[in-house]
């Protein structure tokens, strides 16, 4: 593998020296003038999503990268737009998020860690907001903030469960003691705003709309009243610019924004996707976790915001995930078990039906690995052929571009077939209708609410009824219980709390025990790296 100078990658997209800002020899940011002048285009969009995953992930990013490599190997000028990895999961359970095998984006180590500093900048901006709120309370509380009703949360790009429930300003004269909780930066409202903003001006407007606290008089206090929007713009100026990197085969990739899909909306930035559509006739993008989370949010939140109608979807499948949903425990997923594959197919079929209900052509991509068993592959392929569902065996991990050419050829056919894309709900529908439609039509579950959630949603209908809904739910099941595998029907999901993100323009219902600050596993990846 030879990483090309970033100038060569930029040249493949027709960019000149003034169109990008090198950060290292292998990565760059696109210049502000270039981003402004290429804010929108007509390139067709391909969404890569997946079945309900195992805890290790099923290779959506790997498949997206291999598909991009395959397109360029076939002479198709495409552009891949991905999210930035969060440091927390890199050292948690999943490890890096830059692909694997012969389908990676480079330089992987830099991208997985500090990259160009975008997430660090958002963390600093997020915590500046918190510092100013607490300082305002301490310095006489001119805004009349109720210390017990501060809505804005501090953030950190790390999995740290100890920060879920803390008390700050203890010890007397340093401020007003109050309860606080951290969210992981990639699940913060600031990250959502970065990824949904159409441009710099829209980002600035959305910042002002953030609800930071409730006043002693009951009114909502917004960020614009803190008087720090210009300071926040200074901190995030470069973070608003998409990053340019490459696959290990030298195909160009935009990487920008990094929201989780289980507790945020799970798609790369609108700015990068719209820009990609102006630079290539075909754009590949990926939505996090299973299609019930990332894909639903991409189709219901991102597409209406960005004015995008995707042309088709790729649904990634693995034999391990099929066996997990067929009743096999984690420890036995490597063992041959075609019967469990047969049982687990119900999960894939549910996701396929859901994607088709959005009006999209869909192809299934079985992501093959060295340890996969031929009997299990035959079991899955027989089902797909019997159902008449487009299906490809993809070997991007082992073969890179060559292993994804068959998938690329099917995708090229699908993007030429009519897409009748439509979101699941209309913005004018009530918040309750939106929540219950997602739960009943995507999860196939009924909905219950805590008293507090019911009260809050009713109050938000006035003035915020046209907001999108961004569900926060376990990624390990269609339900809110990670133990319920397969494709359950008729279960209950419980909305225990809701949060209003006025800057992002959506409501976040928290289902079951989902947390906005992840924790580390018993043996984190950080420990497995060794201690020399």
Please give a quick description of this structure:
This protein is an alpha/beta fold.
Describe the structure in your own words.
With 532 residues, the protein is an alpha/beta fold. Among the domains are: 118-238, Domain 2, N(10)-formyltetrahydrofolate synthetase (2-Layer Sandwich); 431-511, Formyltetrahydrofolate synthetase, domain 3 (Roll), CATH 3.10.410. It contains 19 helices and 23 strands. Strands 1, 2, 3, 4, 5, 6, 14, 15, 16, 17, 18 and 19 form a twelve-stranded mixed beta sheet that branches. A four-stranded mixed beta sheet has the order 20-22-23-21, sandwiched between helices. α14 (374-387) links the parallel β18 and β19. The longest helix has 21 residues, at 118-138.
Secondary-structure arrangement, i.e. CATH architecture of one domain: 2-Layer Sandwich
Strand content: 15-25%
- Oligomeric assembly: single chain
Task: Categorize the overall geometry.
Answer: globular
List the helices and strands and how they pair.
Elements: H1 6-12, E1 20-22, E2 28-30, H2 32-37, E3 44-50, H3 60-73, E4 78-82, H4 87-90, E5 99-100, E6 103-106, H5 108-112, H6 118-138, E7 145-150, E8 154-156, E9 166-168, E10 178-180, E11 182-184, H7 189-196, H8 200-209, E12 211-215, E13 220-222, H9 229-236, E14 243-247, E15 252-255, H10 270-279, E16 282-286, H11 291-306, E17 312-317, H12 319-325, H13 338-357, E18 362-367, H14 374-387, E19 391-394, H15 396-399, H16 401-414, H17 431-443, E20 446-449, H18 451-464, E21 468-469, E22 492-501, E23 506-511, H19 525-528
Parallel strand pairs: 3-16, 3-17, 4-15, 4-16, 8-11, 17-18, 18-19, 20-22, 21-23
Antiparallel strand pairs: 1-2, 2-14, 5-6, 6-14, 7-12, 9-10, 12-13, 14-15, 22-23
Helix pairs in contact: 3-16, 6-9, 12-13, 13-14
